[in-house]
Structure formats: C-alpha cells, structure tokens
Amino acid sequence: MKALVKTSREPGIELKDVDIPKIGSSDALIKIKAATICGSDIHIYKSSPGYMRSVTVPTIIGHEACGEVAEVGDCVTGLKKGDVVSLEPHIFCGHCYYCQTGNFHHCRNRELLGISTNGVFAEYTRVPAANCWKHQKPVSSELGALYEPLGVAVHGVLAEEISGKSVAVFGCGPLGLFAIGAAKVFGATDIFALEVSPKRLAMAKRLFPDVTLINAAEQDAVKTIMAATDDLGVDVSIELSGSSEGATQGLKVLKRCGRLSLVGVASRPVEFDTHPDIVRKEARVLGVLGHILWKTWWQVQELLDTGKFDPLPVITHRFPLDDFEKAFTLAASGEVGKVLLYL
User: Fold this and answer.
1) Sign of CA dihedral 202, 205, 206, 207
2) Spatial contact of 115 and 57, defined as CB atoms under 8 Å apart
3) CA proximity to 41, closest of 311, 263, 239, 329
4) Which of 61, 89, 115, 310 has its CA 20 to 30 A from that of 49?
C-alpha cells in the first residue's frame, strides 16, 4: 500500500510502498477514505525540535481520518466490516491510574497515531477497535475526517461553561473557525475573533458575518476588545493560534474571574505577568489537550446534530495522496483552511 512515512529526523516525508498492517485480536483494519493535515503534521514534516522528541522514526504520519472497517480481530465486538468510523488518535492501555480515573487521553502508556505509532496517511491503518468512533448515521468521508480536529476545538470551548459568555478566539485557522462555530452553537454571546492573515479573516467573515473580527497585525487587539466591552473584557479567551502573543493577550482581555483555555502550542516559552493578569483577576488558566474520551466525541455529534454549523467549508483544498508535497506546502502557508488528502 501507499503511505507517507517520516523516514528520518531531517525535514521532509516520503511516499513509500509498505506492507498492509496485520491486525491483532482486539484491532481493526481501516481502509482510509479521507484524512486532513493537522498543525502537528506540519511540525513533523518540518522536523520541528519540540515535536521530534515524541516522534518514532520511521513512522507513517497523520491522525485525522475517516475510513471503512476492512477487517476486525477475533475479540472485537460492536464493529464489523463495512462500518464507517472516525479515529481517536490517543491509544490508551485501559489499566493505568489515568485510564482508571477516566482520563484516557493522559494514559501513562499512551501511543499517538502518526507520532509514536503508524498513522492514517496511508491506504490502510491498524488501530485498536476501542479507538474507533462508529458513525450511526450516514456521513461523508470528508465530514468524518473532521471529527477529531473538531473535538480539539470543542474541548477548548467547553472546558468550562460557555453559554451566556463573551468570548475572544485567538486564531482563525481551522481550529479557530471550529471554535467559533462551537461557541456560537453552545450559546456564547459576543464573540471576537483575532487573526493576522487577511485570507483567514475573509474566510471567518464569510462563515460568521456576525462575529467581531480583529486584524491583530493592524489593530491593537487589547484596546479594541476592552473598548467594546466597557473596559471589562471577555468572560472566556481561547488561544488557538499557537503564538505567545495570543496567550498573553488572551489574559489581558480577560474579565476578572474569567477563563483562558490554551489549546495552541506556542513555538517558544510564554511569559505571563502573573500578578495583574492572573492573581488579581483570579483568572483560571486551563491547558487543553486533545479531547476527553468519549465525552468530547458526543459533544461533537451534538454540535453537528443541531445543523447550526457546517464545518465542511473550512476544508479549502483537496489533494490525492501522491500530491502530498503540494498539500503540505499549502497547509504550512497559514493562508488556507483545512487541507484534505483523499485515498
């Protein structure tokens, strides 16, 4: 089968012919139909030092995907050949402290699809059957591939109560757009969205014409939000840009007793002025990792079932697996939405 493989610790990936994986008694073999490129995939493609510490080489990369069950192991129940599934990338042991206390995504023996074990940028992938979200209703492969990244945004939005809250979303990349959609559906009131890319701001305007958009490269984001909120600030800041500026500004625009969710991963350490921005405000700063199994997946399904937000327009480009170089170059440009690979 064809697969995109990280073959060395140098920048780049290779399209290779590899064996179709063999499954164990508790596994499922998935025929991948569609997969989307995540920011972490771009970091691996570029061999960013912070990410490469966790990457096993060689490894088939990718973790956001939808596919069809091709085969199941002898001990698998609840899944059968032909079922359409999306994949949860955190492979958990089920018996460590974190798994036994319901925090499967923090498993001490955790493996990560496309990082420490073979992922989804391939014609087939092997996963534990327990990592398959089976779709009960018909779903397109493209929408199914978005369930995982949607979950990351939803977890950031719903880390605490959002209904009736004012929100500032830092970053209008795919996760930021998903977060805006989720915040609107789950009852947020005033929403501010900050971005430096004019193209992404234009996309946000098309999708959410009633959201207050701020070009953070041209406007003083803090002054703009404080002026619009009678100098109170917002109830919730959600940082999805992966910039240190987004994290610090997220605190500065935060109302007293507000919440900052840190979802994006900054490329360098972030300095906070803790006394005025955290202590005196009694701010709650929450780190957000992936999604809560399987609570977040049910929340994603609830979001989509409302019919009030369609995430598919966030996919702006589609490529066959053979054109992965074009796909990754475009995804890394920061000027587009979600980039999808189809197989």
Assistant:
1) positive
2) no
3) 329
4) 89
Distance CA(88)–CA(291), nearest Å, equals 9
Measured in whole angstroms, the distance separating CA 135 from the mean position of its chain's CA atoms is: 19
DSSP-assigned letter for residue 20: P
> Is there a contact between 186 and 104 (Cβ–Cβ < 8 Å)?
no
Residues spanned by the domain of 248: 153-287
Answer whether the bond into residue 276 is a cis peptide, omega within 30°: no
Domain count across the chain:
2
- Tell me if 279 is assigned to some domain: yes
Please report, for residues 45, 258, 315, 329, the alpha-carbon distance to residue 339 in angstroms, rounded to integers and kept in the order given: 14, 34, 6, 10
pLDDT tens figures, 231-274: 999 999 999 998 889 999 999 999 999 999 999 887 778 888 89
Measured at the alpha carbon of residue 323, what is the angle toward residues 318 and 327, in degrees to the nearest 5?
55
- Indicate the residue among 272, 287, 302 that finishes a domain: 287
Helix intervals (H) in the chain: 39-46, 49-52, 97-100, 141-157, 174-185, 198-207, 221-228, 244-252, 274, 295-305, 324-332
d(CA 277, CA 262): 15
User: Residue holding tokens 């994006």?
Assistant: 264
Q: How far apart are CA 286 and CA 158, in angstroms?
A: 11
List all residues 6 or more positions away from 195 whose beta carbon is below 8 Å from its beta carbon: 171, 172, 173, 176, 201, 204, 213, 214, 215, 216, 241
Rg of the chain over all Cα atoms, to the nearest angstrom: 20
pLDDT single digits (tens) 97-148:
999 999 999 999 999 999 999 999 999 999 999 999 999 999 999 999 999 9
Contact 19, 13 (CB under 8 A): no
Adjacent-strand bridge partners of 195:
215
Q: Are 156 and 179 in contact (CB under 8 A)?
A: yes
Encode 20-34: b = buried (16+ Cβ within 10 Å), e = exposed: bbebeeebbbbbbbb
The Cα–Cα gap between 314 and 37 comes to 12
Tell me: do 265 and 333 sit in the same domain.
no
> Domain for residue 158, yes or no?
yes
User: Whole-prediction pTM value?
Assistant: 0.96
